[in-house]
């Protein structure tokens, strides 16, 4: 499978715990995005990486959230001191800047986080 | 800030009925528009996209959408739905990021489509 992959697919954690999610983009895609989708809503943008540089962060990304893309390939999203309001589906997407349709993003299956 | 409105939260149709899902966006300049579909338990998938050119866009699985600039609309249509079209449908628009030539995608809240066999 050459699509975007995310791990884990589901995560249940207790309030106050830290969690980390991983995203593997399509090989050679230099752009990587994180989105969050809550029940009954469309995905909302969280942050963007071009190669290893984090170039944009949404105001939704509180200081408890941190994202990295250390070698410009896979990315991790960590949430510290989780709260019940963090329960959501976390989606990763990737794209290639030099492709003919630079605006098209390819989405992974998401990680569903439940905070109890 | 750009936004996308989807007027129908939940649509229920019988098989073979015609479908039209409404979508309006707020930005008056050049826009890039999408319809994504999310089948139960599956990834978000691109149905169709409009960047420029012919305002009537054809996508996969018999779907099409019409870009009407004067109405800020990008409605999704299908002449005859099938049970397998049961899914959540999202209209979306790109918005440029401040510090990059890349764009984020702004999604509407989605329309759940249920098809009765």
Question: In words, what does this structure look like?
Answer:
The complex is a heterodimer of chains A (116) and B (117). Chain A contains no helices and eleven strands. Chain A is an all-beta fold. Chain B has 117 residues and is mostly beta strands. Helix content of chain B is 0%, strand content 51%. Chain B has strands at residues 4-5, 10-14, 19-21, 24-25, 33-38, 44-50, 56-58, 64-68, 73-78, 87-96, 103-107, 111-116. Chain B starts with a strand and ends with a strand. Chains A and B meet through strand 4, strand 5 and strand 9 of A and strand 6, strand 10 and strand 11 of B.
Please name the defining characteristics of this protein.
heterodimer; A: 116 residues; mainly beta; four-stranded antiparallel sheet; 48% strand; B: 117 residues
Which helices and strands appear, and what pairs or packs with what?
The complex is a heterodimer of chains A (116) and B (117).
Chain A: E1 5-7, E2 10-13, E3 19-24, E4 31-37, E5 44-50, E6 53-57, E7 65-68, E8 75-79, E9 88-95, E10 106-107, E11 111-115
Parallel strand pairs in A: 2-11
Antiparallel strand pairs in A: 1-3, 3-8, 4-5, 4-9, 5-6, 7-8, 9-10, 9-11
Chain B: E1 4-5, E2 10-14, E3 19-21, E4 24-25, E5 33-38, E6 44-50, E7 56-58, E8 64-68, E9 73-78, E10 87-96, E11 103-107, E12 111-116
Parallel strand pairs in B: 2-12
Antiparallel strand pairs in B: 1-4, 3-9, 5-6, 5-10, 7-8, 8-9, 10-11, 10-12
- How many strands of chain B? 12
Helical stretch count of chain B?
Answer: 0
| Number of helical elements of chain A | 0
The most extensive interface, with participating residues per chain, is: A-B, 28 and 28 residues
Low-confidence stretches of chain B: none
Biggest sheet details of chain A: 7 strands, mixed
Return residue spans of chain A where pLDDT drops below 50 for at least 5 consecutive residues: none
Rg of chain A to the nearest angstrom?
14 Å
Shape descriptor of chain B: globular
Q: What number is the mean pLDDT of chain A?
A: 92
Oligomer: heterodimer
